[in-house]
Structure formats: C-alpha cells, structure tokens
Amino acid sequence: MPKCPLSPKAGLDIGHKYIEVETMSRKAVVIGSGIGGCAVASLLAKSGCEVTLLEAHSFPGGRCASMEKQGFHYDFGVHMFSRGDRGPHGEVNRRLGGDLKWITRDPACRVMGRVEFDFPLDIKPLMHQVNLARNLGVRAKSYVGSFRLFRSLLKGDDVEVNDQVCLQDYVSRFTDDEMIHLFINCLSQLFFALSYKETSAGEFIWCSSRMFNEACFGYPVGGSGEIPKSFLRGLEAFGGKAHFSAPVVRIRIENGSVKGVETASGYYPADIVISNCGILRTIDLAGREHFPEDYVRKAEQYRYSNSYVTVKYALERRVVLYPVVFYMPHLPAEEVFRYVEEETVPEDPYLFMPVPANHDPDLAPDGKQLVIVGAPAPPGASGDLCAAILDRVHDKVCELYPDLEAAVLWQSRSTCNDAAELTGHHAGEAIGLAQTPGQAGRLRPELATPVTGLWLVGADVGARGIGTEMAAASALRLADILK
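-> structure tokens emitted (483 positions)
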C-alpha cells in the first residue's frame, strides 16, 4: 500500500527534468476515541495523513476515560498498567514526542485475603521468588514445581505453542499446589477478565513475561484518562481533527471499497476508515451485505470477556495506605469465579483495588483520597445482579477497612449497563474479545477487513497484551502498515 506523503508536494523525474507536482494527502477517518483510535489517529497524522477522529461521546477515552467530581479525578474503569512506560502506551508517546509521564511504586501492591504480604515490583531475583512462594503459603513439596512455573513465565518461551492450551492445564503441568492455582486464577482475572479455566496459556505467558521482566507496573500522572488525552494532543499537533458528540450512523461502501463516514451532522469522505468500535459494530455500520457470509458468521461466534463492576470512593481522609490492593478470596481456586459462570452473587468476592491518589496525589483534593474497587461480573448482567454484587463488594471493602465507611464523602458505582453505554458493546465486557484458546495471538481477528480501505483497531484485533495496552499495540501495528 502506498505511503501517505509527508508534504502536499512531490516530484516526478521526467527524463532529465524534475517537475514539482501537487499531490493529495490520503484522508483517514477514525471512528472512536478509545486508546486504539486515539493512538492510530495521532500516529497517522504524524506520518502525513489528513486525519479526522469521530467520537460519539462528549469526552475521549472509551474504557480508559476519566471523570471529575468535586475535585476528584477518577477513572471509569479499574486501571493499572502492567508495562507502564516500557509498554505500547510509552512507545506511542515516544513516537509522538508526547508528555505522558508514569509513576511506579515498590512494593507494587498489597496482597490480602487468603494470605497477606507486599508484592515487590521486581520478582526476577531468585530470593524474591522464594519469598513469593513462602508468602503465598506454597507447600514445601511444591516448591520445585512452583519455581519451574515462575521461571517459565519469566522466560516467556513457547508462547504460540500454548496459545490453544488452557491456562489451568498449563499450571497443572508444574504443580497441583492450591495456593499457586488460586494466585494464578486471580491474576488471570486481573489480566484478562477471565478465569484461568478460560484463558489462553500462551497469552498469559506472553503478558507475564513482559510485566515481570520490565518491572514497570504503574499508573500515569493525571489518571488513566491522561493517556488518550495525551495522544489527542499529538493528533492536534500534527494537524488532525477530533469531533466529539459525533456518533457515526453509517460507513459508506461502494463497489467493495470504503468511501467515507456519515454522522447525523455531516459526511466525511475518506480513503481509509479505521473503526475502534469492535468487529460486529463495524460490520453493522458498514452493512452486512458488504462482507462475506463466513466473515460475518465468524464475527458473531467470537466470545467476549467478563464484565467488571466498580465502586469509586471519594474519602475525606487517607484510609488505604497501599498503592494497590489485590484481594484473594478464602475459597478454593476452582470456586472463586463460579459465581460468574452461574450468574449469582459471590460468597467472598475477589477484588482489585487501585488507589490512584496514592500514585498521584493531585487526583484528589488535599488530605483526601480516591479509591477504586472492581470485581468481575457476568457479561450482560442485569442491573439487579450488578447491584447485588456491588453490595457484596462494598461489604468486603468495609470489612478490610472498617474506617472507610465513615470517611466516604460520596461513592459512584458502574455496572455492565454503564460499560455498554460507554463502549457500544451490548454486554458491557471489560476487555472486549476474550483471550481464550482459539482467540489469542495469530487466531485473533486481523486488522484488515474484506472491504478495501476499511480497517479495525483496538483491543479486539491484531495484537497481544492486557486491556488498553493491547489496544495501543494494535494501533502501533496498524500505523506501521498504513504509514
């Protein structure tokens, strides 16, 4: 595919005479300002494309959006970033010459619940792995198998060989230790919004090796919403335009090729259309008649991740001392996420609790604290079920921190319906397309669609990683193809 010209002029060498001629920069329209959309829009603008980004909401970010209330700046989702500045967010920022900054803490988090200990930022040293095994309560007879598992995850070998292997089965090759299985199951839910009975072992190996070797687990200055905002500043700096409150009603296709994008307020002609809306929504916007039947059928059969329900607490004083709390329930590994499968309320909920104000104090007014708590929920769970799960989450948080309830200035809850409204995905899933055996690595949907000039970007397509990092990696790959 030809490159976007870097300037509006190019030269033709005719004989011995060089003639300067006018050329037209290719026009690209990007649908959706999630991480993938913001990143690819800004990168293409830098390469010389004429880029327009269209966002249905009045604010950017998709699942990575942030909000403000009474001086508290809080994330819509429950975010920490496994690779921080060393991952794809950092790479996009460097390519754009951006100003995104990161904060790491060591210890990285506090493990609570079944066991309690500080989890170090760097577990590469052997002594740190020994301490991890001890802190987890691993049986002495399981040490050898546990260390072999740790080393395999750090080395990151045989990823593709294990893409179609279930993570539970992979762990069982090394050990049957209950605490190792519980820990890996909870970590799988944190990474992929899936239990380890559902996750691709290859994807887990790939993500674990990078997270633990890079030891850059962190959080951006300004909150998670600063990531898309920083990318959009790059888009503007390179001449691109972003339009908000501009929901797309149709992607126009003629003779198998993309022609442009229609919104309620106008039409945007384009040589390239990039959709950050997910594969099914993109097919519907373009019209199913423009795609091969087997492509549509396969898109309808993809499986999606679990949802997450969240509580954001604005506290009048500092209550939680740790940067992150990772709560492992007092349940057997096999039972921890059965409530998701059975669409019921958890007996003892797994919790992931980032404390953004312990990373960046400016996210809360002086002396106050912002705490965000999330737990998995069945995709598409009803409002009543989400409310019941959140009630159980709140009770557990107050059990862990008895002083918290009296310190609450306000709290805000997010359910599956809220996520669906934000993303346009009807089930309100936390990640998007599930990273299961058969849907990981090369088996994920491609960036290109069967329609000429129509591309996909985001966490559903063309990359590996955890959540928004996968979306940024998708954008990097697509920008390299199109630049």
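The chain is about 35% helix and 20% strand.
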